[in-house]
Design goal:
- By secondary structure, this protein is an alpha/beta fold.
- Helix content is 28%, strand content 18%.
- Helix 3 links the parallel strand 2 and strand 3.
Length: 247
């Protein structure tokens, strides 16, 4: 086996185990040719259970992460706006903007969620928070083409959004799923740009229990051919140990 170091091999997946060096019959690889190992130690805040009792803990994590200076936008999922108000009042860097994505107008009929009140919108507007209503759901992913870097051809799936939905629920519960939905929706509405790194914040029911650094994209690019435009959850900042889903 000869590995062309100038090929499209994904070095980011290299585990530095050396197995390829030992296996190569042409002795074409050496440790000197492998990229340097590097890492960045960052803590994840784990909550014992999902729910609104974690809101203040998530806000602390978001404030700390925003001070690093490499992310300047926070996208919240708050139907009432109360949790987003708490986040802004807790104090973020001056350069940091906050976008809140609330439930769609028909959310009460579909899910029993109350729409944001005029008073809630006024409080957010007073704090300079951009207010969006959710315009799309997982149905916006279909029909799309899935692309996998490991194989040269593309594969079609009838409902790829269901696969992503299940993975997000298994990894981070309803909070992570909602945070990703809000980032996708904000990007789809033009409030953030494709490829922009943002902090997505959401919860399970009311309040916040999840935060993650997410590279924004739009639904049709999540499974697209260009890796630079796909969804990327770069860091999980806070998440419940016990995952909860509503279906």
């Amino acid at each position: 086996m000869i590995l062309d170091l100038n090929s499209n091999y994904l070095w980011t997946r290299c585990r530095h185990c050396g197995a390829c060096i030992d296996a190569c019959p042409e002795a074409a690889l050496s440790w000197e040719e492998l990229p340097a190992a590097g890492w960045d130690d960052r803590a994840v805040r784990y909550f014992a259970a999902p729910g609104p009792q974690n809101t203040i803990g998530v806000i602390e994590v978001v404030r700390h992460r925003a001070r690093a200076g490499d992310v300047s936008t926070v996208v919240c999922g708050s139907s009432s706006g109360a949790s987003a108000t708490l986040l802004v009042d807790a104090g973020l860097p001056a350069r940091c903007r906050v976008i809140n994505v609330s439930a769609p107008p028909d959310a009460f009929e579909r899910f029993g969620w109350r729409p944001m009140t005029p008073e809630g919108k006024a409080e957010l507007a007073k704090r300079g928070v951009a207010i969006l209503e959710q315009q799309t759901d997982w149905a916006a992913f279909a029909p799309v083409t899935c692309h996998f870097s490991a194989v040269p051809d593309k594969a079609e799936f009838a409902r790829p959004e269901l696969l992503l939905n299940e993975v997000l629920l298994d990894v981070g519960g309803n909070g992570l799923k909602t945070a990703v939905e809000c980032v996708l929706d904000a990007c789809l509405q033009g409030a953030i740009t494709k490829g922009e790194r943002v902090i997505g914040v959401a919860g399970t029911g009311r309040g916040f229990d999840t935060a993650a650094v997410i590279r924004a994209t739009v639904p049709e690019a999540v499974f697209g051919e260009d890796p630079a435009r796909r969804l990327d959850i770069e860091e999980v900042l806070a998440t419940p140990k016990t995952k909860r889903r509503y279906y």
